[in-house]
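pasting for the record
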Amino acid sequence: MNCKIAVLPGDGVGPEVTCQAVMALEAAAVKYGLTIEFTYGLIGGAAIDETGAPLPDATIELCRTSDGVLLGAVGGSKWDDLPADRRPERGLLGIRAALGLFANLRPAIVHGPLRGASPLKDEILGDGLDLLIVRELTGGIYFGDCGRDGDSAYDTERYSVNEVARIGRAAFELAGKRAGRLCSVDKANVLESSRLWREVITGLSGEYPDVKLSHMYVDNAAMQLVRAPNQFDVIVTSNMFGDILSDEASQITGSIGMLPSASLGEGRPGLYEPIHGSAPDIAGKSVANPIAAILSAAMMLRYSLNLPEAAGGIEKAVALTLEKGVRTADIAQTGDKPVSTEEMGRTVAAQLSSL
C-alpha cells in the first residue's frame, strides 16, 4: 500500500517529537510492507518566520492532497505580541477548518506500568482506565461571534442541529465499536445551546439501539472523572468542554505527554497530533516525551489509512517499551533514570521491528 503523509513539525518540541513519530512509521512500513512518502510543510510560528503567515496556502494544498497529516505543536512566547489573527494558533484552527475536521478523538489510557504515575489511588483506577473523549472541533464558543464593547467583552456559544448531529453520530458509532456506552456532557440546566445539544443527541439514540446513552452536566463530569473514571467509555461534548475535560483526563494518565489525538471529518485526510503544546521551556533539550506523537501516528494508521494491524503494532511496541522501564523525565518515578526523546523513539521503533 502506498501512503502519502504530510508532516507539519511546527514549533517548540514539535519537531523533536514528530521526528520520533516518523521513525515509528518508517519501522511500521518495513514491518508491514508499506510504502510511505513523507512531505514536510510549515505551520504556526515556523511558518510565520518563513512566510509571514501561520498557515501558508502551500501547506493547505499539501494537506488536502495527502492521506493523513501528522502535526507536532504550534506556538511560543516568541510570537505572543503578534495580532490575534497572525498568531501561530491561527494556523492550527485554520487547518482544522480548511480540512473540515469536526470530530476530535482524545483517548485517555492508564498503561499498567505507569499506574504509579497517575495521581489517582489504585482502588479508584481499579483494573485500569481506557476512555475516549469525542470533542466537537469546529463550532461553539471558539468560533462564535466575539469582541469588545466599551469596557465589556463577549464570546458567543452557538451550535446548529447539523453540527451537533454529525459529532453525535461519530460518537455513537465509536461507542458501538467499544463497550457500547456513551455519555453526552453539556450544561443544559443553564445554557440554551446545551439544551439544543441534549435534544439532538437524545434524538439520535434511537438509531443506535446497541449503545446505552446517558447525560451529565459538565461540572459533575469533571468531578466524576477523578472520583470514578471507569464509569465512562466514550464521552461526547462541545468544543470548550471537550478541551477542558480531555486535559483533565490526560493528568489521570500521569502525563500529558502520553496522550495522542485524531481530528476527523467526513473523509480523508485526518489530522493527528499530541495534545500537549509546544513546551518552549524544554524545546531543544531532548527531554520531551514523544509517546503522544508516536501514538498519534498509530491513530493515523487506524483511522485514515485503515491499517489496524500496523496501528496495533505501534501501540504494542509502546506498551513493551514501558514494560521494560524506559521512561522520559515526565513519567519517571523514584529510582528511574530518564532517557532522552531520541532514545525513547529508538526503543519504540526497535520494539516494533522485533515483534
